[in-house]
Design goal:
Layout (H helix, E strand, L loop, with lengths): L4 H27 L4 H6 L11 H6 L6 H11 L12 H10 L13
Length: 110
Amino acid sequence: MPIGTDERAAAMEWASRVRGRRNDLRHALSSGVVSLAEVLDGAVDGDDALVRLLFVLESLPAAGKVATRRHLAALGLAGDMPIGELTAAQRDLVLAQFPRSAQVAPEAAP
């Protein structure tokens, strides 16, 4: 059954909002405005919870794609896991593996 124009417009608006939020999140992480711990803490529900773990980790300053994927594989975590689905133990593993990114950079702190 095809969706109606109202449903399609609502879905397009939601997708646009999520993409914008995801890009804002990437910029904030890469510039050091927010820490990895803050992002993971704030991802309990809402649009941030849908962002994939690999996307978040690759957004960190000086994070390489290959190294990040290797770290995730060593931890036994899937990169396509939404950060809102991380358990407390998985969150702690991620923060331990990426300790320099767990804190806001001093020059970026308010």
